[in-house]
UniProtKB/TrEMBL annotation:
GO terms for molecular function: long-chain fatty acid-CoA ligase activity; medium-chain fatty acid-CoA ligase activity. Residues 155-166 have a biased composition (Polar residues). It is an enzyme of class 6 (ligase). InterPro entries: AMP-bd_C, AMP-bd_C_sf, AMP-binding_CS, AMP-dep_synth/lig_dom, ANL_N_sf. It comes from Actinomadura macrotermitis. This is Long-chain-fatty-acid--CoA ligase FadD13.
Length: 521
C-alpha cells in the first residue's frame, strides 16, 4: 500500500496539527498517536482482545478521536453513542454491543451512570473523562503506559447503531479483515476520493482541513472525519453548531472540506447579508451534504453563494449509495446522483420485481466488499436483502441515464435536522400513558428542520382532550425518551383510523399536513 493512514503519517510527521478541539486547543499528530497507543496498552491489560467492543459517550473532540484511533489499530469495534439518549437507551446499546469498556465524559455523567447500571457492565470497565461518579478516572487506565506502537496491530472498525422501525436500535457490524490498520485506512479513502478530495499529507502536499459540523455519533460524520484524518487532513471540531461561527472557522482554518445537512444550509442562508460578506469562504472545495432531501431552491442559493463546491450523496450506514457533483445536480436539479463506482442500485415494486426507468419503487443498494449484519438479528439482516442488495425502505425512481431521485421515504421514518427518528419507539412510550387509548406519530413539514414530530392521540374514554392532556403526556416522557424524540405538538382525534385487522392508516392522518407540498418527504 501507499503512504496514507494516520499512524503512518503521524510517525513520519509528528508535528502536523491533526486535530483542533472546540475550545481551540491544537493537538499534534505525534501526541494523538501516543495517546492512542497508551490506550491500547491499557485496554489490553484489562483483557481486551481482537473483536471486542468499546463504547464512548463523549462530546465532539479529542477524547472520542483517541478512542476511535485506539480501536482501529487494535482490532476492536468502537461504538460512539448518541448523547441525547436517556440512561436506559444508552444502557441497552452498551449491553447489546457487548462492550468490554465504557467511556463517559463528565458532561453526560448522570445518564452515563444510569446506563452503566442498566447495562450491567462491571465497575472496573467504566472510565470517566473528568468527574463521573462510580467511574474510574481515565488516567488510571493510561498513566504510566508505554506510548510505543503496540505489537500485533490489526484493523478495527466502528459499529454504529441504527434505529429500526421496531424501536430498538441495531448495531451494523462488518467483518474485520485482520489487515494492517494503515492499509485498511488507505482502503477507506476511496470514500473521499470519489468526490475528488486530495490527501493533505505526506508533507509537501497542499494542506487540507476538514470541519466537523455535526455530532460524531452519526455514521457519516465519523466516516468523513475519520477518513479525512487518515488522508492527513486537520480535523476542526465544533461543539454546538452556529452559522456565523461556521463561517469564521472556514476562514480562520482555511477549511477545504466538510460534511453538512440541509438544515445547516438553511441557517447559513438566513444570516444577514453583511455577516455573510464578512467572511472569506474561498478555501472550501468540497461541502458535501446528505441525510435529508435538500429543497432545490436552498441548494441553488448555496451554489450561487459558495460556488461549485456543493456535492451531494445518498447512502446508508449499511453501505452503498449515489453521488451528485455540483455540475450533475445543476443539470438534474433535485437528484441525489448516480451510483458510486463500487455500488449498484435496484428499484423494485412490492413483489420484488425491477421497475422501468421513471417508475417509483423501493430503493435497493449493494456495495462491493461491504458484507454486514445487524448485530444479533440475522432475520432483520435477511429480511432487508434481495439478491444480494439491501434496502432501508426508501422510495425513489431512476432516470434512463441512471440519476436517482427520492420521491418518498420509508412510510414512517422522520428526518428532523438530519437525525433519523423512528415513530414506533415514541408511540410505544406514549401508549403506556393511562389516559391514551391510541396514538400515531409521524413527521409534518418544518421549514427549519425538514420535518417536526407530530403525535395524534385518541384519548381514553371519558378523558377530555386539550392542552392539559398534551402537557401531561409530554411530561410522562421525561427520562424515558430523549427530548429530540418528543412530539413538538399533539393533536387529538375521536377515533383512530385503523383497518379491521388493526393496521393503522397513518397516511390518512399524515396527508392533510403535506397536501400543499410537491413531494411527501
Amino acid at each position: 500500500m501507499g503512504s496514507l493512514g494516520f499512524w503512518r503519517l503521524a510517525q513520519a510527521d509528528p508535528e502536523w496539527v491533526a486535530a483542533v478541539d472546540p475550545d481551540g486547543t491544537e493537538y499534534a499528530a505525534g501526541d494523538l498517536l501516543a495517546r492512542a497507543n497508551r490506550l491500547v496498552h491499557g485496554l489490553r491489560a484489562l483483557g481486551l482482545e481482537k473483536g471486542d467492543g468499546v463504547c464512548g459517550l463523549v462530546p465532539n473532540g479529542v477524547e472520542g478521536l483517541v478512542l476511535y484511533l485506539a480501536a482501529l489499530q487494535a482490532g476492536w469495534y468502537y461504538t460512539p453513542i448518541n448523547w441525547h439518549l436517556t440512561g436506559p437507551e444508552i444502557g441497552y446499546i452498551v449491553a447489546d454491543s457487548e462492550a468490554k469498556a465504557f467511556f463517559v465524559h463528565e458532561r453526560y455523567a448522570a445518564e452515563g451512570a444510569r446506563a452503566a447500571e442498566e447495562s450491567g457492565i462491571e465497575a472496573h470497565r467504566r472510565f470517566g473523562f473528568g468527574e463521573v461518579p462510580g467511574f474510574r478516572p481515565y488516567g488510571e487506565l493510561v498513566d504510566g503506559r508505554s506510548d510505543a506502537l503496540p505489537d500485533d496491530r490489526s484493523n478495527g472498525a466502528t459499529m454504529h447503531y441504527t434505529s429500526g422501525t421496531t424501536g430498538r436500535p441495531k448495531g451494523v457490524k462488518r467483518r474485520l479483515a485482520g489487515i494492517d490498520p494503515d492499509d485498511s485506512a488507505e482502503l477507506m479513502t476511496f470514500l473521499l476520493s470519489m468526490f475528488g478530495i486530495q490527501p493533505g499529507r505526506p508533507a509537501g502536499r497542499e494542506p487540507q482541513a476538514h470541519l466537523i459540523t455535526s455530532p460524531n455519533y452519526h455514521t457519516a460524520v465519523t466516516q468523513f472525519g475519520g477518513t479525512a484524518l487518515q488522508m492527513g487532513h486537520t480535523l476542526v471540531y465544533v461543539d454546538r453548531w452556529d452559522a456565523e461561527e461556521t463561517l469564521r472557522l472556514i476562514q480562520d482554518h482555511k477549511i477545504t472540506n466538510t460534511h453538512m445537512v440541509p438544515t445547516h444550509f438553511k441557517r447559513l442562508l438566513g444570516l444577514p447579508d453583511d455577516v455573510k460578506k464578512r467572511y472569506d469562504v474561498g478555501s472550501m472545495k468540497w461541502a458535501i451534504h446528505a441525510a435529508a432531501p435538500c429543497p432545490v431552491p436552498i441548494k441553488q442559493r448555496m451554489l450561487d453563494w459558495w460556488g461549485d463546491c456543493i456535492w451531494e450523496y445518498y447512502a446508508a450506514t449499511e453501505g452503498g449509495g449515489t453521488i451528485a457533483s455540483p455540475q450533475e445536480w445543476r443539470a438534474h436539479p433535485g437528484t441525489v446522483g448516480k451510483a458510486w463506482p463500487i455500488s449498484e442500485l435496484l428499484i423494485v415494486d412490492d413483489d420484488g420485481d425491477e421497475v422501468p426507468a421513471g417508475a417509483p419503487g423501493t430503493i435497493y443498494m449493494k456495495m462491493a466488499g461491504s458484507e454486514f449484519e445487524y448485530k444479533g438479528d440475522r432475520d432483520k439482516t435477511d429480511k432487508n436483502r434481495l439478491k444480494g442488495y439491501f434496502t432501508v425502505g426508501d422510495i425513489g425512481y431512476l432516470t434512463g441515464d441512471g440519476f436517482l431521485f427520492l420521491s418518498d421515504r420509508k412510510a414512517d421514518m422522520i428526518i428532523s435536522g438530519g437525525a433519523n427518528i423512528y415513530p414506533a419507539e415514541i408511540e410505544n412510550e406514549i401508549t403506556l400513558h393511562p389516559k391514551v387509548a391510541d396514538v400515531a406519530v409521524f413527521g409534518i413539514p418544518d421549514e427549519e428542520w425538514g420535518e417536526q414530530i407530530k403525535a395524534v392521540v385518541e384519548p381514553a374514554e371519558g378523558v377530555p382532550p386539550g392542552p392539559e392532556l398534551a402537557a401531561e403526556i409530554l411530561a410522562s416522557l421525561e427520562g424515558r425518551l430523549a427530548r429530540m424524540k418528543w412530539p413538538k405538538t399533539i393533536d387529538f382525534i375521536e377515533t383512530m383510523p385503523r383497518e379491521p385487522n388493526g393496521k393503522l392508516l397513518k397516511r390518512k392522518l399524515r396527508d392533510p399536513y403535506w397536501k400543499d407540498r410537491d413531494s411527501a418527504i
